[in-house]
Amino acid sequence: MAHRTLRFVMPAPSAAAFEAFFNHSERLRWDTLLDVSYVEAGGTHPSVGVITSNEGRGWKRALSMRTRFLTYKPPHQASAVLVAPMGPFASWGASMRFADRSDGQCELVYTFTLHMRPAWLRWLLDPIAGFLFARETRQRFHAMAAFLRARCDGRPA
């Protein structure tokens, strides 16, 4: 099992950061991982029990996922899990917590757990996948911070 907790400071309040991530049409403007992201039942935002589809960009299409939201409490918390094993993932789950800071920014805490397939190779694949997923997550959230910074500066995002 790969399990990581990553912390980021976002240059916006929790409400703006939460919206940038969970508004699936807006998210595609900055997300470095995804080419397609949508709420399967329609609309732009998930809710508890809702399933979303997320397709990777380029070679990352093999990392596509369908996720079900377990928690959705704007603008502070959300969590989701993989609906069924998909691609190389046997299981995946993640949670996000947003907390406002006194300087007008927010702290984002992203925690994920994953298991890879096949099970007999997990001892090797899980640590590698955890490292790569954490690296990709850092890139994504740096891109999200740049998007939020541009928006706060009044520049087109």
Task: Please give a structural write-up.
The protein is of the alpha+beta class and 157 residues long. The chain has one domain (2-152): Alpha-D-Glucose-1,6-Bisphosphate, Chain A, domain 4 (2-Layer Sandwich), CATH 3.30.530. Helices cover 28% and strands 38% of the residues. The chain has helices at residues 14-22, 24-27, 122-152, and strands at residues 2-10, 34-39, 51-56, 65-73, 77-82, 89-100, 106-116. The protein has a seven-stranded antiparallel β-sheet. The longest helix is centred in the last third of the chain and has 31 residues, at 122-152. 23% of the residues are buried.
Please outline what is shown here.
28% of the residues lie in helices and 38% in strands.
Identify the notable features of this structure and list them briefly.
157 residues; alpha+beta; Alpha-D-Glucose-1,6-Bisphosphate, Chain A, domain 4; 38% strand
- The CATH topology annotation reads as Alpha-D-Glucose-1,6-Bisphosphate, Chain A, domain 4
Secondary structure class reads alpha+beta
Main sheet record:
7 strands, antiparallel
* Helical coverage, percent range: 25-40%
Q: From the alpha-carbon coordinates, what is the Rg to the nearest angstrom?
A: 15 Å
Q: Globular, elongated, flat, extended or rod-shaped: what is the shape? A: globular
User: Can you write the helix and strand succession as a string?
Assistant: EHHEEEEEEH
Cα separation of the termini: 37 Å
| Oligomer classification | single chain
What is the CATH first-level class name?
Answer: Alpha Beta
Major beta sheet, strand line-up: 1-7-6-5-4-3-2
Looking at CATH, the homologous superfamily is START domain
